[in-house]
Design brief:
468 residues; alpha/beta; two-stranded antiparallel ribbon
């Protein structure tokens, strides 16, 4: 969530430390330590916004109604909102609903002392899309863990993005007994990045860097998209429906004479470990856009000459289909979730992770976001160059893609921002056609003397350079 502009008046950060999660005498999650560590971060970095922001810090709260009032106040803010919850996930035995345990909550008193997950969704579901993030660092108790696995998700309204982890009962907790590994990794990624990444990217990097306990529940995660009726975040309020929703069917490709396969690049090598395999015969569920129901598409039968079904382990056919229908928001969500899984499985500098950066770059190019596409291609090129030879065909192809997208950026200011990084990448590739580096340097020199063009317009100098 990155908000810049005067259209919204204020933002809000709500940090809540619930009940401490313990394993016998060992602390699994210490919510107070997590909140203290988060408070050391500048609020603009924490929220992803330079707007004036109110911060509410609740540590040791015992009254569910008092917390509800604070949550309701935070939900009423017109600007961006971050809600952070750390502690223990439990169950109301009477209603059989997940609850966020507050200080002093027991199995017998959860109904009256814990915050039902449903209340969170009720308060947040009316907020505009794109302004609300819920970040969780929880440990489930023995009653909550089977129910969470049965649900398969932490459902949320359309307008809310939920990121985080839920640890299973019985894990020993962090070695130092203080800040949990996911929150620590999230903070480290914020401090390490010169420019704040999006929350989805922060989550992916934190999951990849954190030493999560075996079997930890990651929200969102690729397996949630792989099973029918699971991972449906768009339920309102935050309760699992009585009947599981039916997974939406990815759109069918229409016949085309062009080579559409280049939109989503093929992997250079098969991963050393397979992706989570979806349920046989059921395609992965595609995330819905806010305010729009999934569009079911009738699958043609074999007698109608239907193409062969894509590999059920590979989400790229569904990304390709979404991109062809220009459903880029859904495609980006699906790509981010699978990238999170790849980062957790193979690591941030792995070839598999780099390949998914390139997939996101290609999606950004198709959407017309050439600045993001250029930045992603440059990032992928740097990573490949750190592990591959400068004359490797994959390295050269990535660099050429970055150069192509950069030449199409219309805004001289944004093009100038990307120019030095691009030239540094091109300069490190002696096997690349020298005309790429020459034209990039020539264009950057022209851009330095060009005043900013109007919104969406091209400067005359940049246009003359492209035509030349």
């Amino acid at each position: 969530m990155r908000i810049d502009g005067a259209g919204q008046q204020r933002g809000h950060v709500l940090l809540v430390a619930g009940d401490t999660a313990r394993r016998r005498r060992t602390v699994q999650i210490e919510p107070s330590a997590n909140l203290a560590a988060l408070l050391l971060l500048p609020v603009p970095a924490l929220l992803g916004s330079d707007l004036p922001t109110d911060t509410t810090y609740l540590d040791g709260v015992r009254d569910q109604n008092a917390l509800l009032v604070k949550l309701r106040t935070a939900a009423a803010t017109p600007g961006p909102l971050l809600v952070y919850l750390s502690g223990r996930l439990t169950v109301d035995r009477r209603s059989h609903q997940l609850c966020f345990a507050l200080a002093g909550t027991t199995a017998a008193t959860a109904r009256y002392t814990a915050l039902p997950w449903e209340w969170l969704g009720t308060e947040l579901r009316h907020r505009p899309a794109g302004l609300t993030t819920v970040l969780i660092d929880l440990a489930a108790d023995k009653a909550a863990w089977p129910l969470l696995r049965e649900y398969g998700a932490m459902p949320a309204p359309d307008s809310v993005e939920v990121y985080g982890t839920v640890a299973p009962p019985g894990f020993p907790g962090p070695d130092d007994g203080h800040v949990s590994t996911y929150t620590r990794a999230w903070i480290e990624q914020l401090r390490r990045s010169p420019r704040r990444p999006a929350d989805s990217r922060l989550h992916a990097l934190a999951v990849g860097a954190a030493a999560l306990p075996p079997g930890a529940f990651v929200v969102p995660s690729a397996p949630q998209l792989a099973a029918p009726g699971v991972g449906q975040r768009h339920a309102s309020p935050l309760v699992t429906p009585a009947q599981p929703p039916v997974a939406s069917t990815p759109p069918q490709d229409r016949a085309s004479g062009g080579d559409e396969s280049r939109r989503i690049p093929e992997p250079s090598a098969e991963p050393s470990r397979p992706h989570p395999r979806p349920t046989p015969g059921v395609p992965p569920a595609v995330p819905e856009t806010a305010g729009r129901a999934p569009v079911p598409v009738r699958q043609p039968g074999p007698a109608q000459g239907a193409p062969a079904a894509p590999d059920e382990q590979d989400p790229r056919p569904w990304l390709h289909a979404l991109a062809r229908q220009r459903r880029f928001v859904e495609a980006a969500r699906l790509a981010q979730v699978w990238e999170t899984h790849i980062l957790q499985t193979f690591g941030t500098d792995s070839p598999q992770a780099t390949h998914w950066v390139e997939i996101r770059a290609d999606l950004a190019k198709e959407e017309g976001n050439l600045v993001l596409a250029t930045q992603l291609w440059i990032s992928a090129g740097r990573t490949r160059l750190a592990h591959q030879a400068p004359d490797d065909p994959e390295v050269l192809t990535t660099a050429r893609s970055a150069h192509y997208c950069w030449t199409k950026i219309a805004d001289p200011v944004r093009a100038r921002e990307c120019g030095p990084d691009l030239i540094a990448l091109l300069s490190a590739l002696p096997a690349l056609d020298p005309r790429h580096l020459l034209t990039a340097r020539h264009r950057l020199e022209h851009l330095r003397d060009v005043p900013p063009a109007g919104a969406g317009g091209r400067s005359p100098a940049a246009t003359r350079h492209d035509e030349a």
